[in-house]
Write a structure and sequence with these properties.
globular, mainly alpha, about 150 residues, single chain
Length: about 150
């Protein structure tokens, strides 16, 4: 079992004992998504794959939060924010913009990338280097800016 999945399971047990029902619901939901993907793929997920799932879960909740906020549904927005906060506890520390820009520039220089044709290879390497620590959309934007500018 991956370390991240074990941590999730341990946290669920602790939260159940502390009677943190809402927290348990969120964590069980995440755990169910992980188990369903494992069943579909017929393999056990490692930490990197679990992180990908957590990122997708966060993205879905951020989208819902935006919709609920725009439509004045503060009750649902509060619930989504609560779930985001809980899932974020399992995410690695996010890279700041300066650190990420430096990493993008270093990878472009290392690969000798000069045009948008090279974007895929740069993005592939950076996606693995920053797994769970940076938004892929932001990485993509920084690469485009660097290669076009």
């Amino acid at each position: 079992m991956s370390q991240l999945k074990q941590t999730l399971t341990d946290t669920i047990i602790v939260s159940m004992k502390a009677r943190e029902i809402e927290r348990v619901k969120v964590l069980r939901n995440v755990q169910a998504v992980i188990k369903q993907i494992e069943i579909d793929r017929q393999t056990e997920l490692d930490d990197a794959e679990v992180l990908e799932i957590l990122q997708k879960q966060l993205k879905q909740r951020h989208e819902s939060l935006t919709i609920f906020t725009e439509n004045g549904r503060d009750d649902l927005a509060t619930k989504e924010q609560f779930e985001i906060d809980i899932i974020n506890e399992y995410m690695p520390k996010q890279m700041d913009d300066t650190e990420l820009a430096a990493l993008v520039n270093a990878e472009i220089a290392e690969q000798g990338a000069t045009s948008m044709r090279d974007m895929g290879s740069v993005m592939g390497v950076l996606k693995t280097k920053t797994a769970g620590r940076a938004d892929p959309a932001l990485i993509s934007k920084l690469i485009k800016d660097a290669l076009q500018g």
